[in-house]
Amino acid sequence: MNEKALFAERLKTAMLAAGYEPRPSVLEREFNLRYLGRPLTFQAVRRWLRGDSLPEQDKLQVLADWLGVEPQVLRFGEQAVQKIQENRGRWETALKGEEREVLQAYLSLPVEQRKVVREVILTFAKACSKPPGEETPG
């Protein structure tokens, strides 16, 4: 199954779990009651349910809030989210206190400053990885 069809299945399942019949007319009515943008057409929401298209992020957020599911679960599925969380958990467990502190500080920097810090770290890493006997500047 492709990602659009998988999304359609998750949307139908979430609608049923929330007590709604997974029909385009129901989805159109309930979605448009909650969406602050331009109302969606019957055809647009039907494409979601049929697996012909995916909602944009703002619409996905409205669907998730309405149906009481996490947007990433609705979009990618529970297994994908669990895999990401497992990988993140392994990464966080491997970090020591000081490393975690530095990483959090780095992530809080604006993008341009992160680029500078990255270049500094890579320069140090290159300098430290030279074969023995080669002089390193400094």
TrEMBL record:
One of its GO terms (molecular function) is DNA binding. It comes from the Bacteria. InterPro entries: Lambda_DNA-bd_dom_sf. This is DNA-binding protein. It comes from Azotobacter vinelandii (strain DJ / ATCC BAA-1303).
